[in-house]
Write a structure and sequence with these properties.
The protein is α+β, with helices and mostly antiparallel strands and 340 residues long. Helix content is 44%, strand content 21%. Strands 3-2-1-6-5-4 form a 6-stranded antiparallel beta sheet, sandwiched between helices. Strands 8-9-7-12 form a 4-stranded antiparallel beta sheet, with helices on both faces.
Length: 340
């Protein structure tokens, strides 16, 4: 009766959490609930990779979780691979199957495992494996119980995957695959909070960027080529930013960048790299024609130019407008006063 109650709790979890938890959080929740039903030392969720060629241990929990993380296996190897191919739950009492593909470090202290396939409709999308310390930790009853668990947790994982995808779509520009303006605001608010904590010790710069003469390109070559130009520009800009920097697409041909720890000299250096990249990488309109694109930049630095997102964007946009009427050598402005 107690087991049935706990299994029912897994079903109810789908109603409460399925559409609101990211996969990693969902896995931790599921792993915790399963441990109450079938005690185990460690667990792993294997999913089919993007190329549909292998299984990856995307999420792990418990003993040796770090060593087990990101393990890759062929479909026909190891306990998870055998479970995936056979579409049936499997027990490996002495880890004979997994010892052939998993390092001794990852299996240290573990001596048994049981796997269950996870189904979406009639197709297996993943394998849930739990590991025990003793060779006899799992038996036929454990296998049957894990099958019941698998039936109930598969919808939980699928719901969390769908939630993550919808969240990704809500925060991503489909044309450039960059984060969108909504994501920019989420990131910049967080960065402003960090800069407020450390003030002058942690500078922060916001960049607004657009493509010179973009409307003319659109008119001359058509909107399809204009879309290609935007995707091309996004790739080039992103490639010249630091790993910590954040680039988003705003509206039209405008991009927004968040440059944590960047003062004026660092910002100028970054802008210089971007400009050089566009000079050395002309855009191919066709096999016969290439054009060199150029950008307009506007920068605003936290504290000096404002303490809110709107203030920083206002000043950055103003500077970008000023850059359009000045020579190239002064494309990035840092004036100290403005006329509102």
């Amino acid at each position: 009766m107690e087991i049935e109650t706990k299994l029912l709790a897994l079903e109810e979890a789908n109603e409460f959490f399925g559409a609101s938890l990211k996969p990693a959080d969902m896995f931790r929740l599921v792993s915790s609930r399963i441990r109450e039903i079938i005690p185990f030392a460690g667990s792993a969720l294997f999913l089919v990779n993007e190329d549909a060629t292998r299984l990856n241990a995307i999420f792990t929990d418990g003993q040796n979780a770090e060593s087990m993380a990101n393990l890759e296996t062929d479909f026909d190897k190891g306990l998870a691979g055998k479970t995936f191919v056979s579409r049936k739950s499997q027990i490996d009492e002495k880890l004979l199957l997994d010892k052939s593909i998993i390092s001794a470090e990852a299996l240290k202290g573990l001596n048994s495992a049981v796997s269950v396939p996870l189904f979406k409709d009639a197709e297996v999308f993943g394998v849930l494996t739990i590991y025990g310390k003793d060779a006899k930790d799992f038996d036929a009853d454990s296998l049957q119980l894990l099958e019941a668990v698998g039936t109930r947790v598969a919808p939980l994982f699928l719901s969390s995957f769908a939630f993550e995808k919808s969240l990704f779509n809500a925060l991503t520009d489909s044309l450039t695959n960059l984060p969108n303006e909504r994501a920019f605001y989420l990131i910049v608010e967080n960065q402003i909070a960090e800069s407020q904590r450390f003030r002058e010790k942690r500078p922060l710069t916001i960049l607004t960027v657009d493509i010179k003469n973009f409307s003319e390109f659109n008119q001359k070559y058509g909107h399809a080529t204009g879309d290609r130009i935007l995707a091309f520009a996004a790739k080039i800009i992103r490639g010249q930013l630091r790993q910590m920097d954040f680039l988003a697409r705003s509206t039209g041909d405008e991009f927004l960048a968040v440059l944590p720890t960047a003062d004026e000299p660092i910002t100028r250096e970054i802008v210089g790299r971007v400009e050089k990249a566009f000079v050395s990488n002309p855009f191919a309109v066709s096999r016969q024609e290439k054009i060199n694109l150029a950008l307009n930049f506007g920068a605003a630095t936290f504290w000096k130019d404002g303490e809110t997102v709107s203030q920083l964007l206002q000043h950055a946009h103003l500077r970008k407008q000023q850059s359009k009427s000045t020579e190239k050598s002064k494309v990035l402005w840092f004036p100290k006063q403005y006329v509102d």
